[in-house]
Amino acid sequence: MNTLIQFDYTLMIVAIGAALLGAVSGTLGTYAVLRRQSLLGDAISHAALPGIAIAFLLTGSKTPLILVLGAAIAGWLGTLLILSIVRLTRIKYDSALGIILSTFFGFGLVLHTLIQRTGNANQAGLDTFLFGQAATILESDVLTIGILGGIAIVIMLVFWKELKLLVFDEGFAASLGFPIRALDILLTSLLVIAIVLGLQAVGAVLMSAMLVAPAVAARQWTNKLSVMMFLAAGFGALAGVGGTIISSSASRIPTGPTIVLCATVVVGFSIVLAPNRGLLWDWFRHQRNKRNLKITASRLLKHPQRGGD
Amino acid sequence: MGLVSAPTQQTQPEDNSESVVKASATWGRLGEVIQEHLDIQLIAIVTAVACALPGVFLVLRRMTLMSDAISHAILPGIVLAFFLTESLSSPLLILAAAGTGVLTVVFVELLQRTKLVKEDAAIGLTFPALFSIGVILISRFAGNVHLDMDAVLLGELAYAPLNRLNVFGRDVGPVSVYVMGTILLLNLAFILLFYKELKLATFDASLAATLGFAPTLIHYGLMTLVSVTTVGAFDAVGSILVVALIAGPPATAYLITNRLSLMLTLSAIIGSVNAVGGYWLAYLFDVSIAGAIATMTLLVFGVIFLVVPNRGIIAIARRRTRQKWEFAQTMLVIHLFNHEGLPEAEAESEIAHLHEHLRWDPTFATQVVKYALNNRCVSQEETQLTLTERGRSVAQQALVQ
Questions:
Q1: Where does residue B91 rank: exposed (0-12), middle (13-18), buried (19+ CB within 10 A)?
Q2: What percent of chain A has pLDDT over 90?
Q3: CB pair distance less than 8 Å for B135 and A98
Q4: Ramachandran area for residue B310 (φ above 0: left; ψ -120 to 50: alpha; else beta)
Q5: Dihedral (CA of B20, B22, B26, B28) sign
């Protein structure tokens, strides 16, 4: 009985953490998807690895806040490098992303082997960030996610008007005198926060899905930014809770990947079923048009003198 | 780290070198050590070149991230094939994984074709989902089989030479050299055979289509090659670092040249340099070889980014400074030219008052005067500046423009 309660309590913490994370990354991912920077999440989450390693090397502690800070700085630096490579050379966004993502990760791996070699007993578990161990989310992690994620969302709300303009008409925003580059960096920094928060829970490899999937799903249901953001937050939370419950229902189903698959299912539903944009609606419209065309055509054939002029 | 333990043995046998037998054993072991060094570097170079060649086209076609997607998404293919064959070195593994890679490309394009999802989001949806399926398959069903997650994802070049190919009982070298060598030859053959088609489809897809060059076929051919190459390199350097091998050298070469043929050659060379440099970096600091090769890739890219003539950061900065001074000098000579021979000329060409007329900072004005004097655009007579012949022509030219 005692273990059952304890289990439920752990499950609840994990579910709350995953839901919060899904909501935060869904909200901020909306911008990434709309700006066609969906894969920035992938880059940031990989580029964060050397930051985690350096933070650990410098402090010798595995306090989530310190590691998250290291990850954030490295991810942020990586993103700035990507932006400046694109600005200063003719190398395109995708290649810049690919280079920074993989080489930062490689450097992180180098540091990681250095740490392993020092034989610091404390280092065990540092590598779990790669796949994430959602099942090990603690109350303190939930608090971190809640507070930092909340701050990120508040900052986003404060600059709502500016960011919205940046997303939908960068040129117009520039012509109005908005500091485009500063806003770009602000938005990217908010993304960095969302991503490093998720590193521990769903892992570097899968965090990018949490940024993309809820936003893509939400996009199918609405044309309004605010509604899309609410929906994305909701879908993200839903995937988080759903994934946690499913993975806890059977043994040896990792939580992170299950959350990602839940989010993917939500996307699939949205793409097929969403009114107006969805594939099913598209099909219905197509059938109706075909029928109408047939009726018109048959009328024309029956009364050629009326339609033939 | 299998690699790192070996060289430390090198020093031990020196103590008992009197014995001829032992000495030969020493030489034998030294030979082994050297062999291991050579083997790993050979694998690294062949892998790097095999990745860099198709990478050139990915970088030019803005499809680099497809390689990232493929490198993650082939995981379920590898896992399923592993369940079937129960071996990590079976050729079926490569086929299944490459098939999954092509499937990834198809999925991304199907998603894009709905027009509901943009390309980047389509990639960002597809590969995490496939990767997740792979991870779940591993942790659910492969608990008691040896399929090490870290080894699959991160790869370890140091272990690659341990898996050796035996022909009629004779050791002819590591399996990886042959696998990656075959893939390299495949890539080379494809690029040489379809060079014209690839070039056209890369730089002008619509022209290629109107001329009947079937860009879709070229696209899928290239993507199949990328899949096969990724799978092959997966074993050696792991999934994420494949991207460093595919994107790094071509992007570095792209900073240097405009010519496709030269870009291909340079990419191969840079890839090899990164591989060897990374290997020795790893040896020196006793760290992950694949990670060190990626780090080397970043370093080489950074250095070229800094120093390359015309397009490098240093060149850009120098050009900007030069332009700043040139512009200021032109302003100065135009100013002098406008007032030349007029009554106010004496006041206008007074060095000490120039900054007032041109609204410059006094120290900046002094520097510009010095710059113009050095260029012999103006000459100084006590406190007065006069235009030289050269300065006059500079001013006239600027005014005409």
A1: exposed
A2: 20
A3: no
A4: left
A5: positive
Q: Most B CBs within 10 Å: which of A82, A93, A102, as the mutation test of the B interface? A: A102
Q: Nearest chain A Cα to B258, which residue? A: A90
Residue position matching structure tokens 């909501």: A23
- What per-residue string of b and e applies to A256-265 under the rule 16 or more CB within 10 Å gives b? bbbbbbbbbb
Question: How close does chain A come to B186, measured CA to CA in Å?
Answer: 24
Q: What pTM was estimated for this model as a whole? A: 0.83
Number of CB pairs, chain A paired with chain B, less than 8 A apart: 206
Q: What tens digit of pLDDT does each residue of A7-44 get?
A: 578 788 888 888 898 999 999 999 999 988 888 888 88
Q: How far is A48 from chain B (nearest CA, A)?
A: 14
CA angle B48, A111, A37 (to 5 degrees): 65
Do strands B378-381 and B164-167 pair parallel, antiparallel, or not at all (unpaired)?
Answer: unpaired
> Residue B385 forms beta bridges with which residues?
B380
Q: Point out the residue among B59, B295, B316 whose CB comes nearest to the CB of A107.
A: B295
What digits encode the pLDDT tens for the residues B75-89? 888 888 888 877 766
Q: Are B309 and B298 in contact (CB under 8 A)?
A: no
| Strand B170-174 to B378-381 pairing | unpaired
Closest CA–CA distance from residue B294 to any residue of chain A (Å): 5
Query: Quick one: closest CA in A to B132, which residue?
Result: A257
Please count the residues of chain B. Answer: 401
